[in-house]
Amino acid sequence: GCGTTQTAAGTTSHSKVIGVSMYSLTNPYFAAMKKSFIENGKKDGLQVEVEASNGDQSTQLAQIETFIQQHVAAVAIVPQDSNSIVTAIKELNQAHIPVFFVDSNANTKLMAQDGAHEVEVVESNNYTGGQTVGQEMVDHYGKNAHVEIGIVNFPTASSTQERDAGFLSVIHQYPGYHVVSTLDGNVSPVTGLQVATDMMEAHPHLQAIFSDTGPAALGVDQAITSMHKQGQVDLFAFSSARQNIAEIENNSVYKAGAMQQPKVEAQVEVANIAKYLDHKSVPSRVLIPVLGVTKANAASRLPLSFGKV
Amino acid sequence: MTSIPVLQVSGISKSYNRVEVLHHVDLTVYPGEVRALIGHNGAGKSTLLRILSGAEAPDQGSIMVGGEKRFFASPRDAQEFGVAAVYQELRLLPQLSVGENIYLGHEPRSRYGIDRKKMFRAAEQLLQRHNIHIDPREQVGRLSHAQRQLVEVVAALERQARVILLDEPTTALQADQVDDLIRTVRGIVADGTVGVIFVSHKLDEVWSVADRLTVLRNGDVVLDKATREADKQEVIRFIVGDTHVVESSHGLLSSQKGSSGSQRTESRKMGPEILRVDNLSSRSLRSISLNVNVGEVVGLYGLEGSGRTDFFRLLYGLDSMIGGRIDLAGRPYHPHSPKRAMALGIAFVTEERKKDGFVPMLSTIQNVALPVLSRYQSFGFIHRSTVERAVLDTLKPLQLRGDPSLPATHLSGGNQQKMLFARTLMQNPRLILLDEPTKGVDIGAKAEIHRLIRDLVQGGDVGVMVISSEEEELLEVSDRIIVFRDRTTDGTSYQTKALTDIDLRNLALSEVVS
Amino acid sequence: MKRTRHIPKEMGIFSVLVVVYLLFGLLAPTFMTTSNTFTLLLNGSVVALLAIGETFVLLTAGIDLSVGAGIALSGVVAAIAIQHGLPWYVGVLLALASTTLIGLFNGVVIHYVKVPPFIVTFATMGVASSIPLILTNATPIPITSNTFSFIGQGFIGPIPFAVLLLAVVAIIAHLILSRTVFGLHVYSVGGNRESARLAGVNTAKVDVVVYMVSGLMAGLGGLVDASRLMSGYPTAGSGTSLFFSISAAVVGGVSLFGGVGTILGAIIGAVLIAVVSDGMDIMNVSSYWQPLVIGLIILVGVTIDTLRVAQSQRVSFREVFVARFTRRAVDHAAGEAKSASK
Amino acid sequence: MKRTRHIPKEMGIFSVLVVVYLLFGLLAPTFMTTSNTFTLLLNGSVVALLAIGETFVLLTAGIDLSVGAGIALSGVVAAIAIQHGLPWYVGVLLALASTTLIGLFNGVVIHYVKVPPFIVTFATMGVASSIPLILTNATPIPITSNTFSFIGQGFIGPIPFAVLLLAVVAIIAHLILSRTVFGLHVYSVGGNRESARLAGVNTAKVDVVVYMVSGLMAGLGGLVDASRLMSGYPTAGSGTSLFFSISAAVVGGVSLFGGVGTILGAIIGAVLIAVVSDGMDIMNVSSYWQPLVIGLIILVGVTIDTLRVAQSQRVSFREVFVARFTRRAVDHAAGEAKSASK
Ligand SMILES: Nc1ncnc2c1ncn2[C@@H]1O[C@H](COP(=O)(O)OP(=O)(O)OP(=O)(O)O)[C@@H](O)[C@H]1O
Ligand SMILES: Nc1ncnc2c1ncn2[C@@H]1O[C@H](COP(=O)(O)OP(=O)(O)OP(=O)(O)O)[C@@H](O)[C@H]1O
Ligand SMILES: [Mg+2]
Ligand SMILES: [Mg+2]
User: What sections of the protein cross the membrane (chains C, D) (predicted)?
Assistant: First the structure.
């Protein structure tokens, strides 16, 4: 089941075509979102075509232009970059194709400046998600603890930058908490694994690693296990992968984290698009909460996650 | 010739890997003079020429052109100061056209770029002037070896240089082409402004072209004399530095018939037929018929482009046959690949060693052993010391100068040719195809190679076919000669005893007319 | 450079391009519209620009890995310059200067120090991708100049300005390579550097200039991207641009070993890649399948082209087959003779 | 077959490696520990394995772009096999078979159809990266076999098993290239394909086998990664692996033009890259700066090595400079003489 390959030619038929331009489909998070988009679309009689820009802003632009060529009924975008996507919004506006955002929004100030407009955005608040993980960490070690923290991040995307900022905003309130190393996990388990091993070699007293992406968290988790640092180094991370959530329940390495709800985001987005196309009113902003996950609630969160164990 | 020397070289020294190949060499060329530079393989002739043309920097010494001291950082500098060169290893670029190659580096320009029309017109005139019938728009890669050599020489002459350096410009050329070239060179120096250095291993050429000669031995100038006053025997002694070898090369010197016959048993019984070719045709050859017996050397003669090289390539599986029949040792043979040809006992020395003869980065030992490695291995692992010993034994009689454990590019041109001949000897073949086997080989080693070929056919059950552009060589080494004309032959052969080089030339020409 | 009596070598891959274009057109009605054709050309313009620069470099048997990073550098330099109140054209000049300087450095080190091009441009790729990140702290810098937006978003008639720019640059590059002394020298250096040197070609000039051209093209590509995105994006060009630009040149018949290939070929290669990418998007081919599809289309295309050339240049297929067949028969007979004689 | 009296060429880049290692050790106390040294070797083992395969291919003047994708393919195949209840070793064999088959395909098409290696392996790279995504729907597949985990996580004494595996593979590869008939044939094909063919070398066998070796190495690399992550990750190896493996070989002296280079060099190159990557992480170099730092270290290292070789083989630096200078002086004098005489 990897998407439809029908063309948009059939706009005359009843099923309307929705174009979705995503960040990356090789990240399970977005793979889950895509699946939800297509399934929920089917329920509402919408045909959803999903493209991935694989981390490249100009690819995203190209894909949106393709949607314009196809005269799709609406476009939903997970923006690579909140600024430069504004160009695309303008083009869509000119083509009279309604624009929806999902996962994160475009730069609203710039949009206002350029006279570009969107219909709606379904956001999960990355900043508060980061704060949630920070708070979980503080809860885990105690407010007065002395903790050496390593961060495995993805420094070149705005969503992960926000997560880091949220996380740091909490951590910085506690003088005992020190970030001793920040390395790029490149949203990749292999890179996550490698930088985490290096981090632990460099800082023998490291106690906690924060990973701002799920794929890198997978690698960090294995790094801790394979260096036999269970109990010495704990993992806190953003991830909605079932494998990771199950790890939290098990609680040997992965202590707590935050999960976004890609399925829910897509579901809400599709529902709102359907409403809009039926000329009903839709809210301009829907916030999907980023859920904190701890050992206590992991079991109940498991059904919301995606992937295999 | 009391004028300022057009080229004066003093105290030039050069070492490679701490081995000195030139030792305080002094050399003077006056305008209007052709100076021959001769010496054994690896004596340092090409190295000296490369230094004079700016291709390489000397370790020591100075160069004066037209009385002024010059330093050449690159060939471009040398050309600016009026020095042009033909290198031993041809420098032409196969992807470019003949015209582009001739004018590369000094292209005729129009306001917007290259004036190709003018360039091709000039090239056409130039080629015509030298009696070379080649389309200047043709890609150089499609030319025969001899044609390329001619183009190269003509390109150097065209540079309007004061000093022209020619490193073995005649190796691939036919006798009449050599005569033309010599006439051209004499013509160029005739007006007394240009000086030429001419490297060759063929003493006949030296005597007909050069005013003076310089003999290099192991990087030292050992003789510097007017050609008129020099004696061939003396010169050979200086080249070889060893009287023993002079004896054996004596036959080579005099190009009259009969002298070579003395090395041969007059009435030898031929062995069985090793190769029979009937009515063979390919894309470039038509109905070739001939046969070769075990125990004989068959010379193939023909004008340039008569199809001899193509015939060898076909036999070796490098081209596909379209019609006819080949029998190898009495069995039908259909050439398919070099590997198969080799497995069936055919060995081949190609005419252009640099193109498809050897692998430059491999050592001489590795290059020689490459086709026969399977004999010196167990479980795929090479017995290095055995290989080394076998190769060194084979190389010994060839007087190879240079370190055989170094990459083959470190050898001088003639020594590379010896390396390829050694490879043939290693293969113990039944049928040997030699295309210009002594190209660039010095006088001593050449005689040795001829002797080895004769020994081979007398001793073992081998048949040999030789292509050579030197009539003397063919007459010297072959039992009989087959003449190729216009990409075909019917196999009629001529006993060498009954032939002179003049006869041979006439034979090749006459029937083209008829 | 060659006589025109031969069919140009690029005809083969050009036919492949036409066939692929028509196929996509058949499969998806929206594909073959004028508007979509210009869109795909616009989307492919950056890779095509890089492929032009890469062609110069590859012709000398070099390689330039720094072009992808040059895109980011150029865009960010322009954005910062404009952000600081400089006029847009100063931003453009600074951007082009920055990547051309990188090219100058590449060429000088490659020629004079004789470090392999792969290593030198690997290093400058690192430098050129770090600088934008450091300058911007990984945050894209919005560009506000409206004039600047014309580079990537303007139209002249129905034609996107960037596509016109590409066409002009391609024609100039083509003329340089095919008509000028410098062009001939580029081919000669790539054909055999030593031969070219012996013939008196200024190899230093050739080496340095080709990398500067490649840098300049990366700079132009960066400007097109920045203008389309209206921001200096510090990780622009980090995706497939470099890879696709080399692939475009190679698909178009440029040899990695130097001396062989044309601008025309490289452009055809780049357009082929743009057509396939756009076609797959239009047909909504799953992104899981896209690498496979593009790989196979290019492989099949180049294979057909290769076989066609092999067929026309060498022996005809019939001849080979007849020969093979005869050989079998003969060998077979020989085998029988052998076994009979035992 | 070469005489050993010469200092091996790899000494140059090896000294660079030692110096870089010691420098990082000086700057960061935790760097030069046994434990961190093995960690960096373990982290570099996959690139090193790929570099071994790439060396075989580069020596024949080929290139293999499909190795990065092979990592994902191999890991996913093993994971799926184990998930379906097959024993771990069957998973391992299937994984290795899958990438070796890709290599077989590469070699056959490159040799017989004469399509450039860049194109063929570009296509198989696409295929090998699509298949894992299609098979897994982009979701990693957890591996549960404990035995399997030994490949990437096991230790023998203080040494990680993967590092030992790498050492054994490297030694075998070294012996094959330096001691066997096949090895010499690989060098000869890369040095001058036509000469090798005329000398009776089975070029088909060489071409096909080198790509199979490269595929096999990618498969091994994939197993190491999968075992370290304990999951078949469909985009493993999509990052810098391919690029670093070619760079490692080139840094170690392997020529992209064939015929030159050794396994020893490639391994030293791979370890150098691993040391720099690890050292930068240990020193917490900002990820913005990392590409710049690694690029410059490698450039400086190779430059020093190049200059050293140039110096020892040819003329000394002093001489070159003197010559340059003298030339100017002479030219100048000559110029003056000329103008004076007018
Ligand atoms: N690039 C090189 N590296 C190392 N040694 C070299 C190199 N080129 C030449 N030599 C050595 O220098 C010596 C002189 O070589 P050179 O080519 O000048 O000889 P030559 O007189 O031209 O011989 P030939 O008659 O065979 O052409 C030889 O011993 C050769 O091995
Ligand atoms: N007239 C021609 N037509 C086609 N090809 C030619 C012609 N002349 C030469 N060639 C090509 O040049 C190469 C050598 O030519 P060929 O074998 O005919 O020469 P040859 O008889 O060996 O003469 P020599 O070796 O004395 O130059 C071959 O590859 C051949 O195809
Ligand atoms: Mg010589
Ligand atoms: Mg010939």
Answer: 12-32, 38-58, 65-82, 88-110, 117-135, 155-177, 243-276, 288-307
For position B384, what pLDDT does the model report?
93
Q: Which chains touch A (3 or more CB pairs under 8 A)?
A: C, D
pLDDT tens for C99-152 read: 999 999 999 999 999 999 999 999 999 999 999 999 999 888 989 888 999 999
Residues of C with CB under 8 A from a CB of A: 27-30, 33, 35-36, 39, 42-43, 46, 133, 138-140, 142, 153, 225, 228-231, 233-236, 238-240, 277-278, 281-289
Residue B317 lies in a domain: yes
Contact D153, A197 (CB under 8 A): no
Distance between CA atoms of residues B495 and C106, nearest Å: 65
Q: How many CB atoms lie within 10 A of CB D107?
A: 28
What is the rounded CA–CA span in Å between residue D261 and residue D252?
7
Total domain count, chain B: 2
In order, the DSSP letters of B265-308 are: -SSPPP--EEEEEEEEEESS---EEEEEETT-EEEEEE-TTSSH
Taking Cα atoms as reference points, which of D244, D304, D194 lies closest to residue D50? D244
Residue B214 sits in the same domain as residue B339: no
Same domain, B140 and B28: yes
In this complex, do D152 and A226 lie within 8 Å of one another by their Cβ atoms?
yes
Report CA(B308)–ligand 3 centroid distance (Å).
Answer: 26
- What is the average per-residue pLDDT within C13-24? 95
CATH of the domain at B82: 3.40.50.300
Ligand with minimal distance to B401 CA: 1
Same domain assignment for residues B141 and B230: yes
Global pTM reads: 0.91
* H-only helix segments in chain D: 11-27, 34-59, 67-83, 88-108, 117-136, 146-153, 161-179, 181-191, 193-198, 203-229, 241-251, 263-282, 290-313, 317-341
Give the full edge-to-edge strand order of the sheet including A46-52. A46-52, A16-22, A74-77, A99-103, A120-124, A285-288
Structure confidence at residue A303 (pLDDT): 82
B310: Cβ below 6 Å to ligand 2? yes
Q: What are residue A121's phi and psi, to 5 degrees?
A: -135, 135
Question: CA angle, corner C138, sides to C136 and C142, nearest 5?
Answer: 60
- Do B212 and B295 share a domain, yes or no? no
Q: Is the pLDDT assigned to residue B264 strictly greater than 80? A: no
Looking at the structure, tell me whether residues B347 and B428 fall in a common domain: yes
B440 neighbors B90 (Cβ within 8 angstroms): no
B261, part of any domain: no
- Which subunits have 3 or more CB–CB pairs within 8 Å of chain D? A, B, C
Q: Which helix (H) or strand (E) holds A30?
A: helix A28-43
Specify the amino acid at residue A42.
K
Give domain status of residue B274, yes or no: no
Query: Residue C73: helix, strand or coil by DSSP?
Result: helix
Task: Please give the pLDDT value at position B131.
Answer: 86
User: Over the stretch A200-251, which tens digit does the pLDDT of each residue have?
Assistant: 999 999 999 999 999 999 999 999 999 999 999 999 999 888 878 888 888 8
Q: Pick from D98, D217, D218, D92: which is nearest to D149 by CA?
A: D92
What 3-state DSSP class applies to B220? strand
Which residue range forms the structural domain that includes residue B505? 291-355+413-510
Residues B229 and B317 in one domain: no
Residue B2 within any structural domain of the chain: no
Q: What is the pLDDT along chain A (309 residues), one digit of tens a residue?
A: 333 334 443 344 457 899 999 888 878 888 889 999 999 999 989 999 998 887 778 888 888 988 998 899 999 999 887 888 888 999 999 999 999 999 888 888 888 888 899 999 998 889 999 999 999 999 999 999 999 999 999 988 888 999 999 999 999 999 999 999 999 999 999 999 999 999 999 999 999 999 999 999 999 999 999 999 999 999 999 988 887 888 888 888 999 999 988 899 999 999 999 999 999 999 999 988 899 999 888 888 888 887 665
